[in-house]
Amino acid sequence: MSILAAGFAAALLVAWANGANDNFKGVATLHGSGTLAYWPALAWATAATFCGSIAAIPLAGGLVRRFGGKGLVADSVAADPAFILSVAVGAAGAVLLATRFGFPISTTHALTGGLVGAGMVLAGPAHVSYGTLGATFLLPLLCSPIISMVLAATAYLAFSGLRRRAGITDEMCVCLGGVEQVATSVPGTASVLLTSGLTVSVDSLERCERRYAGRVLGFDAQALLDRLHVFSAGAVSFARGLNDTPKIAALLVAAKALGVSGGMTLAALAMALGGLLAARRVARTMSFGITPMSHGQGFTANLVTAALVTLATPLGIPVSTTHVACGSLFGMGAVIGGARWRTIGGILTAWVTTLPMAAILAAGSAFATLLLR
Questions:
Q1: Do residues 133 and 196 both lie within one domain?
Q2: What pLDDT score was predicted for residue 230?
Q3: What is the pLDDT of residue 174?
Q4: Which of 54, 7, 8, 22 is nearest to 354 (CA)?
Q5: What is the pTM of this model?
Q6: Which structural domain range is residue 198 located in?
Q7: Claim to verify: residue 28 and residue 86 sit in the same structural domain
């Protein structure tokens, strides 16, 4: 197999790994809040992501150029098949490793690491544009989770205030003998107090369903929120396809096997397949590992994520959907006091190690191709 063909295959592996690690992130709040089961949520994520990928074709120019290595290394190096192969190997290896352990990481971060590692070997450390790396790649990746964390926390507090003013109450429900009953938690215990006055022990308060009682503009508040929540999850998945697909397609385009449209379509198909076959580990972490969430909290997190990622794409800003989505959940967990900091610490550690891990793998691949020439 030629280096160019190997690079093409490795780029498809990046797309598959991206789907496995990223596809469920947009709908994690649907599954975590109990709005949808795993497979319906995944089907919705896959369809919306694919639509976003196709819609990105006319908007993809800026991201395709950036993730083809132009501006970071000399054009002659960016066009080298060994460079394309090494970037893809580094990114795919880092994302697949994180997926195996259920950590949601950034494919954008992994690609950036691959670009740096391959560039340092094939162009030389002195010929990598570290200014471009910092301003164009690292700054958005570092700032986006902080911005989404603050926005999600602020938006949730604002929405909660509006809900209370509208007279919509937040109820906890349990099902006894097939009959749904309203309950309130008993502080310091795993018990709930029913409206009948009976106290019932439960194995976990998180298993009790939370719902909103009241009407908004004549519509049942909970039914309306569920529809908005599903729509917002689709918007996040659409935004992810819009923002992530061009970065991966850049490798296929750089391999000169496909044009932008063909590269985008093939990357979208590989992403969808990876998500359908291997998304469950990361889905569990995103849905249940970061923070417990109600329908309203999940909707708010999705709304912030979709807005930030969608805005970034036409501006050519390589934000990470993972960082934005997780940042929103971190902020939500912090403001409701439910953040699981041990899991969050593990995710942050995976984020910190993603770029150097991808860079090391890419550098190793680049050395190997030099030896084989």
A1: no
A2: 96
A3: 62
A4: 22
A5: 0.84
A6: 169-213
A7: yes
